[in-house]
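S.,

Sequence below, as promised.
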Amino acid sequence: MAFQPKRHNLAILSRMIESNTPKEEILRYMNCSPSTLFKYKKILRENLGGLVDLRENNGRQEALTVDEIQNIQLMNEELPFMPAAKIKDELMLNCSRWTVRRAMRKDTDVRCFKPAIKNKLIRLHKEARMEFAQRYLHLSQEEWRRTIFMDEKVFSTHKDGRGLVRRPKRMRYDEKYILPRSRSGRATRSFYGWVCGYFPGALVPIDRKLKSDGYLELLEDVFIPSINAAFGDQDLINIIEDNCSIHTAHIVRNFWRNNPRFNRLPLPPCSPEINVIENVWAELVREWTPSIARTEEELIVRVEQGWEAMRNRPDYFQRLTDSVPTRLQKVLDNEGSSIHY
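The prediction came back faster than expected:
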């Protein structure tokens, strides 16, 4: 439970601090511990809007002036990726980089996070995203659940980066907390798959250098038969895929044109957050255990097992497709800029 101060104690503490009453006398008068007094002072500072610093002065001179702190915060706002040490050098400050970092946080909500990685969007991209969102925002929940989301993914035997490990101090080199280094190299394999709002569809290992004729063969021999088996061959089915060259080749466009039952929605460039299969790929590797697969054959088995296991999670796929209208609305609200998905 959060600390709940008594209002009259705050008033008494404020008067005693204003009169420079020694800390020991405040503790005796209020009959509280030093930690409780610290909490009272913290709440009192917050109530005063941070304009008055009630912490005891230890006699040291401040490392930075108010103007220097403002300059640090302005530079950080203009150049958020600049390291604290670089800001220190640029402003010629006589302090440590740690002091600069504290100055960045002072009286602000600025904190250090891992940056989001998104495609660089130009004006034409944003306009296309806005047009797509306005055009298809009206589709019903059932229509989005019956939409086929298709894409390619390259899987690797190793997860990029070392990630994090929770361990006690001074136990870095204990065998339990060490990731084994693979000396046999990294194996990769490309897959192509589709999902809808009810289940994952077909997943096929493909050649990394797949071309338009190979993609057309994949559509005719695997994906269209699997879609027909899932939905029958009567109702209209929407298709969403990205705009890579094999998807927009002349022979592929002719294929969709000759199969009017399939309505290929014109997904705008640089819009992976609208194609929900991207979330499925991320979910597949979220629990990726290092070195669980060392060869290409083991990698294929690992991916296919994970794909099949997701068939037991129909609610997950419904939530994904049900979120598409929300994603489109956020695209409109952000005027075509990137969104959190």
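Residues 116 and 341 are 11 Å apart (CA to CA).

Coffee later?
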